[in-house]
Amino acid sequence: MSFLREHYLAKLIRDHGLLRVAELGIWKGRTFLHLLAHTEATVIGVDAWRHRPENDGVPGGETYATWDMDAYEANVRRRSAAYGERAQILKMETHEAAHQVADGSLDLVFIDADHSEIGVRRDIADWSPKVRAGGWVTGHDIDWPTVRRVVEDCFGAYQVGPDNVWAVRT
Predict the structure, then answer these.
(1) What is the SS3 assignment for 45?
(2) Element (H, E) at 34
(3) What pLDDT was estimated at residue 51?
(4) How many domains does the chain have?
(5) Looking at the predicted structure, is the pLDDT value of residue 18 above 80?
(6) For residue 64, what are the domain limits?
(7) Phi, psi angle pair for 112, to nearest 5°
(8) Which of 6, 62, 124, 139 is the S-S candidate for 111 at Cβ 3.0 to 4.6 Å?
(9) Do the Cβ atoms of 42 and 56 come closer than 8 Å?
(10) pTM reported for the whole predicted model
């Protein structure tokens, strides 16, 4: 098995003793559920689980038109119930959920939601303040031009991990 994003993030969390994590863009729950199963962290998962007609007018976004969002959400909720209060799900847009999380209260945020330039920029702006000094702002799909452009603009230098994960220590 190759070293995937969920393995990389779980190792980062364990190696640095991180206890409060957020994932933006749960989708089918692969990363969310793995982090719950393989770390001691409380994981806040954010996903609106909705289709986006015509990309909401945002260039570079996805419509998710063929995805069975109700089934994905139900599966994640069912499987994460075993983790009790460590699994916290916010069904809303990432910019709305940012208001639910106190600044400096997270050890790590993993950004893997709206991959448009506007979406990535907004998620970094909204969620970076949520991460304490010495924590990690991370994300997925650094191979996407929209993601790479924004990450380089916002942070300059960043680490690249397996499975197209990017990471910045705050």
Answers:
(1) strand
(2) helix 30-38
(3) 59
(4) 1
(5) yes
(6) 5-169
(7) -150, 45
(8) 139
(9) no
(10) 0.91
User: CB under 8 Å to 107, separation ≥6 — which residues?
Assistant: 13, 16, 18, 19, 20, 21, 41, 131, 132, 135, 136
Six-digit token pair at 126? 């909204």
- Tell me how far CA of residue 77 lies from CA of 45, 82, 148, 153, in angstroms: 10, 9, 31, 35
What's the pLDDT score for residue 152?
98
Backbone angles phi, psi at 101, to 5 degrees: -120, 130
CA 161 to chain centre: 15
- 21-68: per-residue pLDDT in tens? 999 999 999 999 999 999 999 999 999 997 565 544 555 455 556 667
Q: What is the CATH number of the domain that holds 58?
A: 3.40.50.150
**Strand, coil or helix: what is 49?**
coil
Could you tell me which residue, 50 or 169, shows the higher pLDDT? 169
Mapped onto helix, strand or coil, the DSSP state of residue 90 is strand
